[in-house]
Specification:
The structure is a single chain. The protein has 386 residues and is an alpha+beta fold. The protein contains six helices and 16 strands. The chain has a six-stranded mixed β-sheet with strand order 1-2-3-4-7-8. The protein has a six-stranded mixed β-sheet with strand order 6-5-14-13-12-11. Strands 9-10 form a two-stranded antiparallel ribbon. The chain is globular, with a radius of gyration of 20 Å. It starts with a strand and ends with a helix.
C-alpha cells in the first residue's frame, strides 16, 4: 500500500478503509452459476489470459460530505493496461481503435488510426484527469527512453476516460503522476481486481455501482486456439435497460431512488481488447467494431461516447532491416468466425462482472450508487431460464 497525502492510494486488489465503501468480497458472474455465451474462458477469465498482458490500478478514496471543488470528496483512480512487460516504445504492438460515439475526451486515437500501433501503457481515468495522466505517461516514457524527441521520434500516449463526477470531486483532478506510476508498477498478470477500483472507483452502470470488469474467451483449436480478453470501465445505461444473460432484469429490479447524474442517462464506456491472434491492424479494427454487439447484449443503446483498443504482436522501434517475416492468418474467414463471438462474449461478461463485483459507494454530497443486488438478479435469471 502506498500512502499519498491527502488520501489513501490503494494499488491492485486492496481496498480502502474509508467508510465510503461497503467492504466485502462480491462474487463474479460465473461464481454464481450464470454463464454468458458458449466459448470457454481462459484460466482467469480476464484480459490477462492473453500472454504478456498486465493490468494495474491505483484507487483514490478520501473525505465525505459536501462537495468542495478541488478538495473532495475523492472517489476516482487510474487503471493501466500493458500489452507486455518490456519497453513498449522500443517494442510496439499492433493496434486499432473504434469509436461507437465520439462524445468523449480520449487522447491518442488519431495516431493509432494512422499508424496502427500502441507504444506506451494504455491508461483509463476520469474525464477531467486525462491531461494529467497523459503528462505522467510522457514522463514515464522519457525515463525509459532518454533519447525520446532528441535522437528518435516522440511517443503517442493513449488515455481513455469516463465521467465520475456524480460521486467524485472531478474538478480536483486528483489522479497525479505518482498514482499513474504506482499503477504501472503494480501491473501484474493473473486475476484482475474488479468493481470500484482504479478508473472505475466513481463510475455508475445501469443506475447501480459500476466500475472495472474483465473476461476472456478461447476459440476452438481448429481456429487456432487463440485467446481474446476484454477489460471495461463501465459508466452507462438506464436501470430499466439492464439485461443479464438474456433476461431483462432491469424491468423488474430498480435501484433505490436517487437523483440522476448531471450527464443524464447516456453515460459512456471504455473497452480495451487484447488477443494473441496474429492479426493486422485492419483485422484488429474488425474485432473492435464487434465490441458494440457485446454492449447491446447487456442493454446498452449507445447513448454517448465509447472507444475500443486492441493489442497484438510486437513491432520493433529500430528494426534491423527494411523487411521482416511475420505470421499472418492463412484463412481469415475461418478464424474471424470464432474471434468475433469471442469479443462479443468477453465484452458482455466484462460489463456484468463490473456490476457484480462493485460495492456500494457513497460519494460527494451524500450521493450513493448502490451495489447491484446479485442474489435477486440470479433469482430473476434462473426463474426466466427455467
Amino acid at each position: 500500500m502506498v500512502k499519498v497525502n491527502p488520501f489513501e492510494s490503494v494499488t491492485q486488489a486492496e481496498h480502502s478503509d474509508e467508510p465510503a465503501v461497503r467492504r466485502g468480497s462480491r462474487p463474479r458472474l460465473r461464481e454464481l452459476g450464470l454463464v454468458v455465451g458458449e466459448l470457454p474462458p481462459g484460466p482467469h477469465n480476464a484480459i490477462t489470459d492473453v500472454a504478456g498482458v498486465r493490468v494495474g490500478h491505483t484507487t483514490l478514496i478520501a473525505g465525505e460530505g459536501p462537495l468542495l471543488p478541488g478538495h473532495g470528496p475523492v472517489r476516482t483512480g487510474v487503471t493501466v493496461v500493458l500489452p507486455h512487460g518490456e519497453n513498449l516504445f522500443r517494442h510496439k504492438v499492433r493496434a486499432a481503435v473504434h469509436t461507437i460515439n465520439g462524445f468523449g475526451k480520449v487522447f491518442g486515437f488519431e495516431q493509432v488510426r494512422e499508424l496502427g500501433l500502441i507504444e506506451a501503457p494504455i491508461a483509463l481515468t476520469n474525464t477531467l484527469n486525462v491531461g494529467l495522466v497523459v503528462d505522467a505517461l510522457v514522463q514515464y516514457t522519457i525515463r525509459q527512453n532518454p533519447d525520446l524527441g532528441i535522437r528518435t521520434s516522440t511517443a503517442n500516449l493513449v488515455v481513455g476516460e469516463t465521467h465520475d463526477g456524480y460521486l467524485n470531486d472531478i474538478q480536483g483532478r486528483h489522479v497525479r503522476a505518482e498514482h499513474v506510476w504506482a499503477a504501472i508498477e503494480a501491473a501484474a498478470w493473473g486475476p484482475v481486481a474488479e468493481g470500484a477500483v482504479g478508473a472505475g472507483t466513481g463510475t455508475s452502470c445501469f443506475g447501480w455501482k459500476g466500475g472495472i470488469g474483465t473476461a476472456s474467451r478461447i476459440v476452438p483449436p481448429e481456429a487456432g486456439g487463440y485467446t481474446v480478453g476484454a477489460l471495461v470501465q463501465s459508466n452507462f445505461g438506464r436501470p430499466s435497460d439492464l439485461i443479464v444473460c438474456g433476461v431483462p432484469v432491469g424491468r423488474h429490479l430498480c435501484p433505490p431512488e436517487e437523483p440522476p447524474p448531471p450527464t443524464g442517462d447516456g453515460g459512456s464506456i471504455m473497452i480495451v481488447l487484447a488477443t494473441d491472434a496474429p492479426l493486422s491492424s485492419r483485422q484488429l479494427g474488425r474485432l473492435c467494431v464487434r465490441a458494440a454487439a457485446g454492449l447491446a447484449r447487456t442493454g446498452s443503446v449507445y447513448g454517448h461516447g465509447s472507444g475500443d483498443f486492441v493489442t497484438a504482436h510486437r513491432i520493433e522501434h529500430e528494426p534491423v532491416s527494411l523487411t521482416t517475416v511475420q505470421t499472418v492468418l492463412a484463412d481469415e474467414a475461418r478464424v474471424m468466425a470464432w474471434l468475433f463471438p469471442a469479443v462479443v462474449e468477453s465484452v458482455e461478461e466484462a460489463v456484468l462482472n463490473s456490476l457484480f463485483r462493485a460495492e456500494t459507494m457513497i460519494g460527494r454530497d451524500g450521493h450513493i450508487r448502490h451495489a447491484l443486488p446479485v442474489g435477486e438478479v440470479v433469482a430473476l435469471v434462473q426463474r426466466q431460464q427455467a
